[in-house]
């Protein structure tokens, strides 16, 4: 009996010890978890490796042969301890992650590509910005060559409009040589075209003129220069008109008109229409078409090139004379004369003065105006009469020819007209009247 009570007292003591251990564990676990969270950060806590309480309880020997003792009367503390429920295992306690310290939001994500922009340096707006020069020697050399070419072209054009065709030819030859050395194809093509124009005025053999025009056209096609192509077609057409190859001239002028309508401006279209008017005005039965082309040209002209305008007005006046509309022709001639004097186009001015003098003297019976125009012609030759073919003085000792229409030429200049194979070689180069009988002077 005494042994049973001893075993019962021992079991009761063990139960009290176990209850006390569980109670202390429940009191210390939250504090331990908080300390672990404070030191280990936001990582998830692993479940506590707690030993099963029943395993601890089973460590004490429990005899199977001893019958259970009756429950003794105990103090209130042990009774309360027996009523505590012991879980199988202590579950993990979820704790909030450690709060990170707040930082001020800069509006930019951290990273090398999102660094805050550097502060711009203050600059003085009154001082001009100095940029490093990047011009290479080759570019500078090309620019210098272009300037020299432009100067030669401008000088040659001035000589050409002043009827000094020999000086113009020299300028255009130097322009072509410099453009070739600098390998500037477009400028070289332009030089060939201008050179061909000057050669045409100097009565150079046709083969040389055609060769210059062909080279200019080749370069225009190579560099896709539509403006140069148009100018070459115009020059070739003018040469064919001078040679009285009117059908070829019409074809060339028509090509230039189609080119102007497709890719160029109304200015080029006006030039082409005027050239067609000149060409068709010399063909029998096509005078009405001629006047229509002139009227279209006058409407299209924008006035950007005064030399083209004055030539157009003078040619239109000549067409009106051929249509026996003399009063209108006089008005167009006088308008063209005023413009030619304003822009200094001496070549066109001389032609207009000659035509006006003939018109006023032979058709309109205005002798006073005719004398004024002839006096102006003498002023251009420094008080001397000039040959309308070479525009040189008639008082230089060279033999002269006076036609029935009273137009005077150098004999060798006029022989060049007579020796041509054109159908109009029997007409005066100025008034187109027949010169079947003339007198030598």
Automatic annotation (TrEMBL):
<dbReference type="InterPro" id="IPR013083">
    <property type="entry name" value="Znf_RING/FYVE/PHD"/>
</dbReference>
<keyword id="KW-0863">Zinc-finger</keyword>
<keyword id="KW-0812">Transmembrane</keyword>
<feature type="compositionally biased region" description="Pro residues">
    <location>
        <begin position="64"/>
        <end position="75"/>
    </location>
</feature>
<dbReference type="InterPro" id="IPR011990">
    <property type="entry name" value="TPR-like_helical_dom_sf"/>
</dbReference>
<keyword id="KW-0472">Membrane</keyword>
<keyword id="KW-0862">Zinc</keyword>
<keyword id="KW-0378">Hydrolase</keyword>
<keyword id="KW-0482">Metalloprotease</keyword>
<dbReference type="Pfam" id="PF13639">
    <property type="entry name" value="zf-RING_2"/>
</dbReference>
<dbReference type="InterPro" id="IPR001841">
    <property type="entry name" value="Znf_RING"/>
</dbReference>
<keyword id="KW-0479">Metal-binding</keyword>
<feature type="region of interest" description="Disordered">
    <location>
        <begin position="31"/>
        <end position="79"/>
    </location>
</feature>
<keyword id="KW-0802">TPR repeat</keyword>
<keyword id="KW-0645">Protease</keyword>
<dbReference type="Pfam" id="PF13424">
    <property type="entry name" value="TPR_12"/>
</dbReference>
<feature type="region of interest" description="Disordered">
    <location>
        <begin position="92"/>
        <end position="145"/>
    </location>
</feature>
<feature type="domain" description="RING-type">
    <location>
        <begin position="387"/>
        <end position="432"/>
    </location>
</feature>
<protein>
    <submittedName>
        <fullName>Zinc metalloprotease ZmpB</fullName>
    </submittedName>
</protein>
<keyword id="KW-1133">Transmembrane helix</keyword>
<feature type="transmembrane region" description="Helical">
    <location>
        <begin position="6"/>
        <end position="23"/>
    </location>
</feature>
<keyword id="KW-0677">Repeat</keyword>
<dbReference type="GO" id="GO:0008237">
    <property type="term" value="F:metallopeptidase activity"/>
</dbReference>
């Amino acid at each position: 009996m005494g042994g049973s009570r001893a075993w019962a007292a021992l079991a009761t003591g063990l139960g009290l010890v176990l209850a006390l251990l569980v109670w202390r564990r429940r009191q210390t676990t939250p504090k331990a978890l908080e300390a672990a969270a404070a030191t280990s950060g936001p990582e998830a806590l692993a479940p506590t490796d707690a030993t099963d309480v029943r395993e601890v309880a089973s460590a004490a020997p429990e005899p199977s042969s001893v019958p259970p003792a009756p429950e003794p009367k105990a103090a209130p503390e042990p009774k309360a301890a027996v009523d505590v429920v012991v879980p199988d295992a202590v579950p993990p306690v979820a704790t909030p992650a450690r709060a990170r310290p707040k930082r001020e939001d800069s509006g930019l994500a951290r990273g090398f590509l999102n660094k805050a922009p550097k502060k711009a340096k203050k600059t003085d707006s009154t001082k001009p910005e100095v940029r490093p020069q990047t011009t290479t020697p080759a570019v500078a050399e090309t620019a210098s060559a272009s300037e020299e070419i432009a100067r030669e072209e401008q000088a040659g054009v001035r000589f050409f409009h002043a009827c000094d065709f020999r000086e113009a030819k020299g300028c255009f030859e130097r322009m072509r040589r410099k453009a070739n050395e600098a390998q500037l194809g477009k400028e070289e093509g332009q030089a060939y075209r201008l050179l061909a124009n000057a050669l045409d005025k100097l009565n150079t053999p046709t083969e040389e003129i055609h060769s210059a025009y062909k080279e200019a056209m080749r370069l225009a096609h190579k560099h896709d220069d539509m403006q140069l192509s148009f100018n070459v077609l115009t020059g070739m057409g003018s040469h064919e008109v001078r040679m009285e190859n009117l059908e070829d001239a019409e074809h060339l002028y028509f090509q230039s008109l189609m080119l102007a309508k497709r890719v160029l401006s109304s200015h080029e279209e006006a030039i082409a229409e005027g050239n067609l008017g000149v060409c068709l005005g010399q063909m029998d039965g096509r005078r009405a078409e001629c006047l229509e082309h002139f009227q279209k040209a006058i409407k299209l002209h924008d006035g950007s090139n005064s030399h083209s305008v004055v030539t157009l007005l003078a040619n239109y006046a000549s067409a009106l004379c051929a249509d026996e509309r003399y009063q209108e022709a006089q008005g167009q001639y006088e308008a063209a004369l005023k413009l030619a004097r304003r822009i200094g186009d001496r070549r066109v001015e001389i032609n207009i003065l000659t035509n006006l003098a003939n018109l006023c003297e032979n058709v309109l019976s205005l002798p006073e105006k005719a004398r004024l125009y002839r006096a102006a012609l003498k002023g251009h030759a420094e008080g001397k009469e000039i040959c309308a073919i070479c525009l040189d003085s008639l008082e230089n000792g060279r033999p002269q020819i006076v036609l029935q229409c009273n137009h005077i030429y150098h004999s060798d200049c006029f022989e060049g007209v007579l020796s041509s194979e054109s159908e109009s070689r029997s007409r005066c180069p100025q008034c187109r009247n027949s010169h079947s009988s003339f007198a030598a002077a």
